[in-house]
Amino acid sequence: MALLERPSPRGKRVSLFVTCLVDNLYPQTGLAALRILEHLGLEVDFPLAQTCCGQPGFNAGHRDEARTVARQFLRAFANSQVIVTPSGSCAAMVRHEYPALFADDPQALALAQRLAGITWELSEFIVDGLGIDDIGARLPEPRRFAFHDCCHGLRLLGLSSQARQLIGHVENAQLSELAESDSCCGFGGLFSVKMSEVSAAMLRRKMGHIKASDADDVLLGDVSCMMHINGGLARDGTSRRTRHFAEVLASALPDNAQVRED
Fold first, then answer.
1. Model-wide pTM > 0.85
2. Model confidence at 259, in pLDDT bands (50, 70, 90)?
3. How far is CA 125 from CA 30, 53, 132, 233, in A?
4. Cα-based distances in Å from 194 to 147, 188, 220, 232, 261
5. C-beta separation of 120 from 9 below 8 A
């Protein structure tokens, strides 16, 4: 299904959607996203009624249950001007699936389409939406980064270069390529449960590339993949871990940095 066209997000208040995994397991990622957005001089609100986008139920084929959860998202963000999330997977759910999920409910469909049209993943919001690829960040010492491209963001939203551009413009940051960076880590939500042996084999291959990488850190844009990969690395006894790119960007922000626009 084609993505809906979106109006420019410039000059609008941002509603931060942190996702249920970030809220419950990786709050530091949500705080990092908030710090970046505020550093850019944006007005940010956090709708307290937000829960989950409904993707787990949707992927399991439980469409009625997914609609119930998605309706809460519609209520929570009904008055939002722009929605930004540090998750390509959840952004893809709202933008790709909500219009189809509510196709038989004209009243809900109108709101679902509007919210689908104003939802952005964090890196694409900054780079594609605001036209910024340098946020004025600096690491205290040189560090090399590679990227794992998460499936939903890469294949449904076209996310590949945006986070790389942001990290590449951080002073003292160098970019390296991860072998098969665009191959799946094997998570896929319920796929890793229902097809556990296949998932484990995919994870082992991904872990091998990570351990062989010359990068100090492998970055990604979805904490679901991060949870899956880091769990495997921990069980393997290695000290390496993947990180969300927002955490690196936020950690490199000086209080007085100036943002540069193209």
1. yes
2. very low
3. 15, 19, 9, 31
4. 27, 10, 24, 17, 46
5. yes
